[in-house]
Amino acid sequence: MTRQGTLSAIVAVMLGTSLTGHGVSVLAQAAPTPQERVAALKQSLAESQARIRQYEWIETTVITLKGEEKARTQKRVYYGADGKLTKLAIGDAPAPAPAPAGRGGRGGRLKGKIVENKKDEMKEYMEQAVALVHRYVPPKPEDIQRAKDAGKVKAGPTAPGRARLEFADYLKPGDLLAIDVDAANNRLAALTVASYLEKPDDKVALDVQLGALADGTGYTAQTTLDAAAKHIRVVIQNSGYRPLAK
């Protein structure tokens, strides 16, 4: 190729064009619209969810309060013949030893009761946080479609090679689901959520790390939920994927 031809090739790459012989012809293909991205994303999600049903894996959930581990559970997870997700406990970490009984008569008993009530409230909060994670992750095609139909999807800025879709009011008024999609194959590349538990000021943030199995099936590798107001962190890891025994 001549020097002029080489220069034309460089310009073609910079402008997103294609080469025809020794000349340059501009590709007239426009970038996909958010609606087209949503359709491709839904298809990719549906395909991965269908393929993941052929596997079983280990789900490890770790809950910490102010940096101190409070609970750790492991479950074997798979889809049953009825199509429902099945989770079987492998072994729970031993519960913390109960606090020694208070002394001092009625005052001590009252103090102990208050402590127990606070523990119950915190346990309930932690369980709600774990349940919230599973409402958002993995995203369900029907929830994606509902947000699209409500006109709540828009494109957002992201890194090169990726396309970002933002879904406002995805599951709750005022929440936001942001999905980074690999522009080449429309697979999930990253996922974040800004949401809350009961009240909007009870904010939680989700950050999701994704992975792919050898056959290309996408899966959620790790989800981290931070509830800053309560100093609670929930980390759910999925690992040990293997074909489901038939």
Q: Could you please describe the fold and organization of this structure?
A:
- The chain has helices spanning 3-15, 34-52, 106-136, 141-149, and strands spanning 18-20, 23-25, 55-65, 68-79, 85-89, 153-156, 162-168, 176-182, 188-196, 203-212, 218-227, 232-243.
- It contains 4 helices and 12 strands; from the N terminus they run αββαβββααβββββββ.
- It is globular, with a radius of gyration of 24 Å.
- By secondary structure, it is of the alpha+beta class.
- 29% of the residues lie in helices and 38% in strands.
- α2 (34-52) runs antiparallel to α4.
- The protein has a 10-stranded antiparallel sheet with strand order 5-4-3-12-11-10-9-8-7-6. It has a two-stranded antiparallel sheet with strand order 1-2.
- The chain folds into 2 domains: 1-30, no CATH class; 34-243, outer membrane lipoprotein receptor (LolB), chain A, CATH 2.50.20.
